Automatic annotation (TrEMBL):
Residues 27-173 form the Glycosyltransferase subfamily 4-like N-terminal domain. Pfam families: Glyco_transf_4, Glycos_transf_1. CDD domains: GT4_MtfB-like. This is Glycosyltransferase.
């Protein structure tokens, strides 16, 4: 409900959830957008999904009036023009923002292209930087996922800190319960996995730091590697060629390394988490890090990096390590593999943290942002 006692109508951008545009693979923004699409109605608002893209390829949202490139050019040529929207407020969950005749809330997930250009595809870097700066200026209010991100948004985009609210990401509440054991067994058997493996999840790209995870695993005692596989889940990304070659070389040398470059469904991903013994996530940079919460909810002890937003997300529920230290990553992996009491402690801490970070709670806090913005107009 809004401040006037009537149901709020919210336009929600769903471009990143469209199977016809994403090929069925959702990145973090897509997972976030899909979660809001599902949870916001349960938080008491009416949601109207909108997507940029050819109408024939859209199955989630109704098409915007103009394709995004044309709408952006229109914004530049006619700075006084406003797109009419039949909603109370529009929530842009990615950088595709145009001027509207309604208040705009924008979620800016991080400032990676500006803060760390070395980790971004140079072909898209300048465009992303420009689009995100424009988005920040068009929004009436900005949502960040962590307090860490606020400082970057202020520094890199010039956003007024008073216009930023922190709303963490989360996990579906279904992940807090164990999935069907028979279905987990079937998924693991289909991919040649043995329960208890080391697991890491993320697009294969430099900032995810998967190369050091592989090095740390290969440095473990042979007896541990024989008992526990290293399972890498992630689609190939920018500058992944060297790591892919390293993975292939390890496999050819008989190491228990499995790379799942494409899982067929989110259910399969959940099953793969459920079968893991240790989750390893020493990312070099995150605006949040949804896989951490997925592992917490799945009852898997977590090793995570001690940099950027990650410690804010783990909040003491993971073993924090220096992501640049292969030795530190490996030591934590070995410790959790051998110390059952330690494993149980971190599993319990992770479960508690996951309960605090559900998509339902994300939606509730997001609606509070909508109401605050509308009340202030």
């Amino acid at each position: 409900m809004d401040v006037r006692g009537v149901t709020l109508s919210i336009g929600l951008s769903t471009t990143t959830t469209e199977p016809g545009l994403t090929g069925g693979h959702l990145d973090g923004i897509g997972v976030y957008s899909r979660a809001l699409l599902h949870e916001l109605p349960q938080a008491g608002v009416a949601v109207a999904p909108y997507s940029f893209g050819p109408a024939a390829r859209l199955s989630v949202g109704q098409p915007m009036r103009h394709p995004f490139p044309l709408a952006t050019l229109r914004d530049l040529a006619l700075p006084g023009a406003r797109e009419h929207m039949d909603v109370d407020l529009y929530h842009a969950t990615d950088y595709r923002i145009i001027r509207m005749d309604r208040p705009i809330v924008a979620t800016l997930h991080d400032a990676l292209p500006i803060a760390h250009p070395e980790w971004c595809n140079p072909k898209l870097r300048k465009l992303k930087n420009w689009l995100q700066v424009k988005a920040a200026r068009k929004a009436d209010h900005v949502i960040a996922h962590t307090h860490f991100t606020i400082a970057e948004l202020v520094q890199c985009f010039g956003v007024d800190e008073r216009r930023i609210s922190v709303v963490p990401c989360g996990v579906d509440e279904a992940w807090l319960e164990a999935p069907d054991a028979a279905e987990v067994d079937a998924t693991l058997a289909r991919h040649g996995l043995r329960p208890g493996y080391f697991l890491t999840v993320g697009t294969i790209q430099p900032r995810k730091n998967t190369a050091r995870v592989l090095q740390a695993y290969l440095g473990l005692p042979a007896s541990v590697r024989a008992q526990r596989q290293l399972v890498i889940v992630g689609a190939p990304g920018w500058r992944c060629e060297e790591l892919v070659a390293q993975i292939r070389a390890a496999q050819q040398n008989g190491e228990n390394v499995v790379w799942l470059s494409k899982l067929t469904s989110s259910a399969e991903l959940r099953h793969v988490y459920a079968g893991a013994g240790v989750f390893v996530f020493p990312s070099l940079y995150e605006g949040f890090g949804i896989p951490i919460v997925e592992a917490f909810g799945s009852g898997v002890p977590v090793i995570a990096s001690n940099t950027t937003s990650v410690p804010e997300v783990t909040a003491g529920a993971a073993i924090d390590v220096d992501p640049l230290s292969v030795g530190a990553i490996g030591a934590a992996m070995l410790e959790l593999a051998r110390d059952e009491a330690l494993r149980r402690r971190y599993i319990a801490r992770g479960k508690v943290r996951a309960v605090e970070l559900t998509w339902r709670e994300t939606a509730r806090k997001t609606v509070a942002v909508y109401e605050s913005v509308l009340k202030g107009r």
